[in-house]
């Protein structure tokens, strides 16, 4: 529940239907009210968990309703926080740090780390992330929703338009997505040459 210091607070409802209605109200106000839009942006940048609950969406192919707001489950919260603190530590030490996430299926882990990276990429111009998956088919695709770069683009497409006013550039041949602020996502398959020679945050 970010406090903007001017009597304006934001709190995203945890229940999906209420959350969608709240998002719709926020969207309409953000379009019409520049001050609200700036305060909402700042709240998203200051609070990673609020960013998830307020603007990110997730695709559930096995569910009856497949596109749903990203209302965080309690067990996802410490995982996302640990991802973010590990990035902070790597930046402070300027050294790579390993973080292993043990999970079972259908826990939204891919969407969790993509959401954490999107937040960082919006917040910090020039942020760079390398995304590695087990084979080339799962790196990138314009049609396969299981590909990691497809999921990333899908999430970016569903951000409020004013968060990405110039959109983004996607190169499916090079497996890259570049945001207007210079932040970069690169996709790789899990081979011995994965991300070799590259520089990522």
Could you describe the 3D structure shown?
The protein is an alpha+beta fold. The chain has six helices and six strands, in the order αααββααβαβββ. It has helices spanning 16-32, 34-46, 48-55, 76-93, 109-123, 148-157, and strands at residues 57-59, 67-69, 128-133, 169-171, 176-178, 184-189. Helix 1 (16-32) crosses helix 2 (34-46), helix 2 (34-46) crosses helix 3 (48-55) and helix 5 (109-123) packs across helix 6. The model has no long low-confidence stretch (mean pLDDT 89).
Describe the structure using short key phrases.
alpha+beta; 12% strand; two-stranded antiparallel ribbon; 6 helices; 201 residues
Structural class: alpha+beta
Q: Got a strand count?
A: 6
| Strand line-up of the largest beta sheet | 3-6-5-4
Please state the overall shape, judged from the principal axes of the Cα atoms.
globular
Q: Quote the distance from N terminus to C terminus.
A: 28 Å
Largest sheet: 4 strands, mixed
Average pLDDT, to the nearest integer?
Answer: 89
Q: Estimate the helix proportion, in percent.
A: 40-55%
Helix and strand run? HHHEEHHEHEEE
* Low-confidence region ranges: none
Number of helices: 6
Rg over CA atoms, rounded to whole Å, is: 17 Å
As a percent range, the share of strand residues is 5-15%
